[in-house]
Amino acid sequence: MKTFKELRVSAPILEALSRQGYACPTPIQEQAIPQVLQGKDVLGCAQTGTGKTAAFSIPVLQLLSAGKPEGYKQGAIRSLILTPTRELAIQIDESLEAYGENLELKHAVVFGGVSQSSQVQQLRQGVDILVATPGRLLDLVSQKLIWLDKVEILVLDEADRMLDMGFIHDVKRVLSLVPAKRQTLFFSATMPRQIQALADAILRDPMKVEVTPESSTAETIQQTLYYVEKANKPKALLHLLNTRVDDSVLVFARTKHGADRLVRLLLKNGISAAAIHGNKSQNARQNALDAFKKKTIKVLVATDIAARGIDIDLLQYVINYEIPNIPESYVHRIGRSGRAGASGFALSLCGVEEIPYIRDIQFTIGLELPVQELEGLSMSPELIRQSQFLLNQGKSKQSKDLPKTGTKPDFRHKKKSYPRKSQNGPNKVFSSGESFRSRGNSTNDRIR
């Protein structure tokens, strides 16, 4: 494993990284940093949580601090980092502050949903690196408060999410405002056709750096599966929140409207909650996230898209109210707990129609999820057997594409008992009775 020093990161940045406790780059950082430092365009495919922010912010800081171009105008924006949401913009700006604390570079962040006065005041003092969301950026450009004609390095972060949020036309407008001769860094978690076409249009002979989606779950995360019919899921969620979960919890819903319905259910039953999804304003999302971090609400309900970029220290609990149909999304979801070596607990509620997704997830992570019962709410073993029989017979639309073997039981956290076969059928479930407790924390030397 290489160190940041071996990647030729400059001494002032190395000192800042050391102060932050970081020594070893993540795979995306190890691939991207040398390419960016050589002045090459980069096409990066990596999910949030892989260290992507440092992969572009460290070399951008180093390149800009190395010297000013001919004809440099004092206070001109030399690098623009475009990102879809306020939360991500703030996170990137904080990273620039941490890694560039020993450099004489100025940076600022602009986003919508708040008054622009303080942002404009900072811009007037001169900015080397600007982090921005598309809407507020173009608004300030139209007011002739921002000029982008001196940009040397353009970074597009979370490009696929900008597409999902309807920002793709704003992005194209921004591209028309920056110089054609520039270095471009393009990062996206996925590469749908429209995003690939955009990358092909704006990148010049790019170096592709890629981190394949995680297919394994951390050993510090204790996973539990509950087979519950769809109609019983609201009761099952309330039961878990009132009896099993003793701390803040991130609950995943599949849709925006579903997330809002869950919040109404929880509030009606006296449980403090808020939702975060694409239909919420920047202000509403940030307020919900801040309240969750401060523990003034117990439950944050999120969709997969909105959950990108959420990084909450010492979050123990994640509940999959609905099972994702993409295995990597499951890994990404539960990875919000158990970060930096801390313990985590992932609880999943699976309905009949979601059993194929569970089979796919188990094959992908190579583990059989431990099953527990919820008294009076779990599906009968007979119903589970019938559903799995249909799946094995190929009557599920997904089953024909799934391997028949490849999983092993996840006994990593089981001490007293575990799911096993019985005379009543292969899917008889047993409750371990094991309580959910914190297992303490350990440190991690990689930048998240």
Q: Which key features would you list for this structure?
A:
hydrolase; Rossmann fold; DEAD/DEAH_box_helicase_dom; nucleotide-binding; six-stranded parallel sheet; disordered C terminus; 16 helices; DEAD/DEAH box helicase; elongated; alpha/beta
Secondary-structure map:
Blueprint (H helix, E strand, L loop, with lengths): L10 H10 L6 H11 L4 E4 L6 H14 L13 E4 L3 H14 L7 E4 L6 H8 L4 E4 L1 H9 L10 E4 L2 H6 L3 H8 L7 E6 L4 H10 L4 E4 L10 E7 L5 H11 L5 E4 L3 H13 L4 E4 L5 H12 L5 E4 L1 H4 L9 E4 L6 H8 L9 E7 L4 H11 L1 E2 L12 H12 L15 E2 L39
Parallel strand pairs: 1-6, 1-7, 2-4, 2-5, 3-4, 5-6, 8-13, 9-11, 9-12, 10-11, 12-13, 14-15
Helix pairs in contact: 2-3, 3-4, 6-8, 14-15
> In one word, what is the shape?
elongated
Stretches where pLDDT is under 50 for at least 5 consecutive residues are 395-406, 415-446
Class by SSE composition: alpha/beta
- Overall pLDDT level: 83
**First-to-last CA distance:** 17 Å
CATH fold title of the largest domain? Rossmann fold
Count of helix runs = 16
